[in-house]
Amino acid sequence: xxxxxxxxxxxxxxxxxxxxxxxxxxxxxxxxxxxxxxxxxxxxxxxxxxxxxxxxxxxxxxxxxxxxxxxxxxxxxxxxxxxxxxxxxxxxxxxxxxxxxxxxxxxxxxxxxxxxxxxxxxxxxxxxxxxxxxxxxxxxxxxxxxxxxxxxxxxxxxxxxxxxxxxxxxxxxxxxxxxxxxxxxxxxxxxxxxxxxxxxxxxxxxxxxxxxxxxxxxxxxxxxxxxxxxxxxxxxxxxxxxxxxxxxxxxxxxxxxxxxxxxxxxxxxxxxxxxxxxxxxxxxxxxxxxxxxxxxxxxxxxxxxxxxxxxxxxxxxxxxxxxxxxxxxxxxxxxxxxxxxxxxxxxxxxxxxxxxxxxxxxxxxxxxxxxxxxxxxxxxxxxxxxxxxxxxxxxxxxxxxxxxxxxxxxxxxxxxxxxxxxxxxxxxxxxxxxxxxxxxxxxxxxxxxxxxxxxxxxxxxxxxxx
Length: 466
Ligand code: UGA
Fold this sequence. Notes:
The protein is α/β, with parallel strands linked by helices. It is built from 18 helices and 14 strands.
């Protein structure tokens, strides 16, 4: 099929690459000249493992083209909108998508299907059909089918998630004769997963609900970790035992500094705001948000306690800056809040992240800290170590050697990925979240190994462009 993707950010580029892989002809439209130039030069403006190779292959095979001229969409059979809907401040904004629809919709062919892939505020959905019909009518064009097709891809694993989804959700905004849904089924014909056709509002809530539930699981795990600390239990063993119950499952129950990134934190706060505007109380989501914020300060408190109650004048080695391994994304990364808080409490911070583009961005965002180009420079003479992102490089460190180069013995593991017994044996005073030294259990090792294999796979297939 001839598909146009409007907006070549994270979601748009993954969608373009995945659709080309399935044999569709993809035209990517990007209005930002700098971004377009980068793409045409064969580079990606974002880091996603394997995506650069995928896109380069399909550019070479003439299956993907990039352009800025929106008029070119007039010959597309499917037009996918993937522009941003965050306001950058924990809220929604629909100005970009309205402007984009206002520009694009008049040019579309009558037999097109218009697909919204951007994550949408639920309150925007009831206005969508009327808005698009209005734009068509003003241009003297007939109405077109419109569907919402939310994405469920994770950064760092996006290509796999796109090509092998667990479900495809199609939310029907307007599809008078069913041509829109038929085209979508054709677009996804390579997929071996249920294709769920839902009313538009249900599709939007299914997308939001998935992320809200994942966020809830993480905050639950963090509350559970506090109980484990209080009752001298090890959260890794507790979660391992719980997760074997299929009704619970082991995923997204790892405690630590909490969730970051451009999706989970924003979608929790945005949903709280949307609910408040409709006078709906959402105490669970408020608690999820609060617990998540508290984890970041609790991490700083743990470092402070380890250093005898004051961070003033102490040198902290911060390991990891990105919101998770396998990405260079610093959006709402716990490390940034933590670094700022450490500096505010009088510490000097030396931070390191294996991703070069993340280091460059962190230097710009956080001039008050020193970002080093190798892990040993960050560790050298540190009074305490704080691990914030579970990059395999950190898990694999020779911790006895690390102990020799640092000044102090405090180590706070903000992702519960190090083996407390190994760290203890290396001469450190280990603090995790809900983990007890001297009670190493096999399951915690299993979690670390799984993380390691995922992240190593991601890194192996990346080229470091950010
Ligand atoms: C998330 C969802 O997982 C995707 O399904 C969704 O498509 C995407 O948002 C989106 O809406 O676009 P992503 O933001 O890439 O994906 O990151 P996640 O893998 O969900 O991780 C989010 C945060 O939770 C990270 O900071 C991670 O370290 C943290 N996390 C994850 C935990 O603290 N504990 C866990 O057990 C798992």
